[in-house]
Amino acid sequence: MSLSDNNPGEGTRFPPRGEPIITGINRIGLWSLYIKEVRRFLKVHTQTIWGPAVTTLLFLIIFSVALGRGGREVLGAPFASFVAPGLIMMGMMQNAFANSSFSLLSGKIQGTIIDLLMPPLSEGELMTGIIAAAITRAVMVGCTVALAMALWPGVSLAVEHWWAVIWFGLMGSAMLAILGLATSIWAEKFDHNAAITNFVIAPLSLLSGTFYVIDNLAPAFQAVSRANPFFYVISGFRYGFLGQSDIGDAGAVMVAAVCLLVLNVVMGVVTYRVLKSGWKLKD
User: In what residue span(s) does the ABC transmembrane type-2 domain sit (predicted)?
Assistant: First the structure.
């Protein structure tokens, strides 16, 4: 019989103060955070899923009626089939940003930010859970919008390159989810969040070639469009459906795909460092 059998408390060994008990990835905590974020937007699915789908479908109807008459074709496809993938991707990106930009900001305003900072989650796990939930919402919105558009007369969503649809869909959603998380860290009130949405996200989305090809623009405006990362996301996503894109040939699309990955990694590292510093969160 050991000493610990005579004195049960003596056999208990606690780690020194400040030494983490959970090592590696806190899978349970990460999954719990992800489910919590997903349930948050699903509780108001009429606003977060169906509302954006209806708004995006209205865009399709309006522009198809206004610009798609007379059998107009763009990139060899009917106008409605040309604009549909861009609208799907635009809806995905905007909702990815909306979801992640609300996560930390709501906690700061409501005084519940401690509920996210106190659990045994590293900054990387906190960031992963929030971004994954934002991408989930983006995918749900994209699927809902695609289903509605597929039922609309004159729209074809036949896929030519599945890899492009999946890759650019995920890269675009991740890019806006990371940007939304960075905005959530920086913002101190909902007006700050709305300012980024109205003056950055919306203009970049609408001026990204969603409704036109940039070859129709003047050279100066073409250069501006090519400096817009949203243009590559939407055009690459459209390439997956139509097999053609105003980015260029297949090689140019591959280069754009790699560049988006690099951009997301850089944005992710910067956001992680800011989150780890505790700036505007632990002050």
Answer: 43-278
CA of 84: how far to CAs of 2, 59, 67, 95, in Å?
73, 9, 13, 17
Retrieve residue 268's tokens. Answer: 């992710």
pLDDT at residue number 165: 97
Cα Rg for the chain, rounded, in angstroms? 23
Q: Which two tokens stand for residue 256?
A: 């754009």
- What distance in Å separates the CA atoms of residue 145 and residue 115, rounded to the nearest whole number? 34
Nearest to 217 by CA among 136, 200, 22, 227: 227
Amino acid in position 242: L
Q: What's the distance, CA 41 to chain centroid?
A: 14
3's tokens: 């000493």
pLDDT of residue 31 exceeding 80, the answer is: yes
Q: Are 238 and 82 in contact (CB under 8 A)?
A: yes
Neighbouring C-beta atoms of residue 178, cutoff 10 Å: 27
* 92-108: pLDDT as tens digits: 999 999 999 998 999 88
Tell me if 121 sits within 8 A of 47, measured CB to CB. Answer: no
The tens digit of pLDDT for each residue in 170-203 reads 999 999 999 999 999 999 999 999 999 999 999 9
Q: Determine contact, residues 188/281, Cβ cutoff 8 Å.
A: no
In what helix (H) or strand (E) does residue 48 lie, and over which residues does it extend? Answer: none
Quote the mean pLDDT of the chain: 88
Three-class HEC string of 59-85: HHHHHHHHHCHHHCEECCEEHHHHHHH
How far apart CA 8 and CA 154 sit, in angstroms, is 75
Q: Which two tokens stand for residue 95?
A: 């909702």
Give the integer Cα–Cα distance in Å for 173 and 94.
8
Report the Cα 47 to chain-centroid distance in Å.
17
Helices and strands (H and E) in the chain: how many = 13, 2
